[in-house]
Every structure is written in C-alpha cells, then in structure tokens.
Amino acid sequence: MHKITAFTQEETLLIDKSAEIFKEQGKDIYSNFIRQKKDLAILAELVSRTPSLRSGERHGMSKRDINTMAETLSLTGTANPLLLPTRATMGRCFILTKINFFSFITKILITIETNTLLAREIQFCCNKLVFSLMAEKAYEAIIENEIASGSIIKAAADELSFLWEYRMDRNLDSFSPPLMALWKERCDAVPVLGTLQGTMEVLRISINLPDIWGDFLASTSNRNCMEQALEEFVFGLSFEEITHLRRIMESFGISAIDREKAVEILKKEKLYKEKQGIFLRGDARAIYSFFHIRNENAVKRKLKGSPGPRQTIEELFLIYLLEIKKEDFKSVIKKSFTKLFKVFKK
C-alpha cells in the first residue's frame, strides 16, 4: 500500500518560506496556516490507509485490478460516488483541500505584497493540482465513452488508476505540459468572435504551440466533434449559444459580431466569467470551472442525443496523446514542450 505524502519537496520548501512570513503577520493568520497544514497531513494519512487500486487485491471471491476498474467504470460511470473506490473519493477530497490551502497562502502573500515571486511559485503548484483534476475528469470521460477503442480505454484506466493510487501526476512531464501549454495560450487570447468562424482565435492559440498540436488538429478522427469542441474552447460559448448567434447573424444579414453584442443577444452578463477577469489572469480554478461547464454540457448532449460536441477538446487531445506510442511520446513531448512548460511557470 502506497503512502500518500501531504507535500512534495518543492512544496515543502515553499510552505516553509511562507511560514516565516506569516509568523510576522499576526497570530490569527499563522495559527490558521498551521492548522490547515496539519489537517492536510492527517488527510494524507487517511487516504494512505484506504485499499490499493493497483495491487491486484482480492475482495472475497473477486479480484480488483486496472482491468476490472475500467470495466466497472465503463458500465456504471463515475457520477455515483457510492460506486467509486474509497481511495479515489478521499484522494479527490485531499487534492481539493490542498488546492484551497495553496489558494489561501497565495491570497495572503498577494495581500501583504511581501514576496510576489513566492506567491507565483505557490500558484504554479496550485495550478498543477487543478490540471490533475481536469485530467482525472477527462480520463473518466474516455473510459465511459462507448465508442472509444479498447486499447484507449485501457490506457486511460491505467493513467486514472495511477492518479487515484498515488495522487501524484506521473504525466507532469508528458500529458500535463501539452494541456498547460494549451491553456496558457487560451488564457492569453481574448476571443473577438467576429464572423464566428474561429480562424483568428485558433491561429492565435496555435501559433506558439509545437507541432504535436497541429498534428492533432489535422487528425481525421472524429473531426466534426473536434471542430465543435474547439469552437466552444476558443469562443468561451456553448455549442447552443454559438448556433443561436449564427442564426441571428444569418437572419439579420450581420457579417460580424463583437462580444458586447453577443452578451446582449444571449442575455448573459458575462461569458463564462471571462471579460478580462479571473479567467484571463490564468487562475486555474476558473480554468477548471470553464472545463467543467463544457464537460457537463457534453454529458447532457450524450444523454439526450442532442447535436453538438459530446467530448471536450481536452478529452479529445488526451485521446490523441494516448494513441501515440509511449516510447515515441516521451521524446516528442520533452522536445516540444520543455520551453513552453518553463514559460507557463513564469
């Protein structure tokens, strides 16, 4: 049974630096900081005591391993928490608690303006945790996908079980950099809508991304879904909202539309809370919220049989990455994303 550690060595160094600063800020802040830190250590120990997912343990007459987990999830889904492994449920609570702890530290450091570099470093650690949650959700969606191939489902199940088992992202040097690089470009690009063709938005996002992203866009697998999912991603609007705007533009002979007019037509005060706000500052929690909205919409369409993308662009990208042979994948990712990974950390 693997022991979950509350913090990595890198995180421990940053937390220790924060502790020295908080000692000078008063008893209330420091005591709150220490209490949350101790709670995380306790929670990590509790997660460590839950049954392993990768040891092939037998429970009565049945054996539990990666294959049985994938089979169960493909049949039951992940919506019902009662059917999920205890380690998965408690581990997710641990990660959420850790994210809130890092957000607390970051907020205090920014408020007192003592060490902005330290605040950015802790925010980066927080972002990595949020991206692991997004990857976790995408892996679950792949396993539940009825049309996914058996090899892809097995690969996703392997990655998911590892994430659930250790609550460490072994893919930080492989799968995470592509997603993080993609999201960095998305956060830096303000959608202008215009003709609603998405050409400029896709170009702005893609220009700084390496060849593997272009290869993904050029792939023929599930192209219709990919194009629709990409439109949701670059415009910050749902498929239904994009379709509605296009009908309005066609009916009134409008060739281009700006975001203010789109807000008026859609009667939305904000488009996914964007508009130069927290999302465009790269806050990973807002990024995850944006992903979660699109993922939930995709699930609803699948259940209702409605038109529109039934997978997010992140899920489709992960499937593409999973299809690449691992021995080739590692070298490709290392070469393509090392520079972008360092840029994202700045």
Question: Would you mind describing this structure in some detail?
Answer:
- With 346 residues, this protein is mainly alpha-helical.
- The chain has two domains: 9-166, no CATH class; 176-345, no CATH class.
- It is 68% helix and 1% strand.
- The protein has helices spanning 9-23, 27-48, 66-76, 86-112, 116-144, 150-166, 176-188, 199-206, 211-218, 223-235, 239-251, 259-266, 284-304, 313-323, 326-345, and strands at 58-59, 62-63.
- Strands 1-2 form a two-stranded antiparallel ribbon.
- It is globular.
- The two termini are 36 Å apart.
Span between termini: 36 Å
Biggest sheet descriptor: 2 strands, antiparallel
* Number of helical regions: 15
How are the strands of the largest sheet arranged? 1-2
Radius of gyration: 21 Å
Percent of residues in β-strands: under 5%
Summarize the helix and strand pattern as letters: HHEEHHHHHHHHHHHHH
Estimate the mean pLDDT confidence. Answer: 78
Considering DSSP H and I runs of 4 or more, what fraction of the residues is helical?
55-70%
> Structural class given helices, strands, pairing?
mainly alpha
Q: What's the number of domains?
A: 2
Q: Which outline best applies?
A: globular
Please provide the count of β strands. 2
User: Uncertain spans, ≥5 residues at pLDDT below 50?
Assistant: 272-278, 332-346
Structure characteristics:
2 domains, disordered C terminus, 346 residues, two-stranded antiparallel ribbon, mainly alpha
